[in-house]
Amino acid sequence: MNVHQATALFRRVLENPEVTAESDFFDAGGDSLLATRVLSAVARDHGVELTFEDFLLAPTPATLAGAVSAGAVSGGAVSGGAVPTGAVSGGAVSAGAVSDGAVSGGPR
C-alpha cells in the first residue's frame, strides 16, 4: 500500500475529500467503527491484517501505508499483533481475523 492508496481509502471511508497524507483519522471525523472498515479494506486488498492498536499507532495515511508495507515485508506481523489474512492456527482462523468486510473473532 502506498500513501496515495491509503489517502484514497481514508477519503472514501470518512467521506471527506479534504483528507491529506498527514490527516489524523480520528481528527478528521473517524471513530472505532469506521477504523474497522479501514482495517478490513487493508486486509482484503493488501493481505496484511493490522490490529486496532496498530491503527492507533498509525492514524494517518502516511503512517498506515508504512505499517502496511512493513507488514507485507515481514509476512503480516506489525507491532506483534497483525497476522496475514487467513492465517490459520490450530485449524481455526486466528482471532481478530477480517473476513467479508467485517471483523470476526477476537475479544470484544
UniProtKB/TrEMBL annotation:
Statement: the UniProt record of this protein carries the keyword Repeat: no
InterPro entries with a match to the protein in the record: AB_hydrolase_fold, ACP-like_sf, PP-bd_ACP, Ppantetheine_attach_site
Keywords carried by this UniProt record: Phosphopantetheine, Phosphoprotein
UniProt cross-references to Pfam families, sorted A to Z: PP-binding
Domain Carrier: 1-72
SUPFAM superfamilies: ACP-like (SSF47336)
Domain of life: Bacteria
Gene3D superfamilies named among the record's database cross-references: alpha/beta hydrolase
Protein name: Acyl carrier protein
Species assigned in the record: Actinoplanes sichuanensis
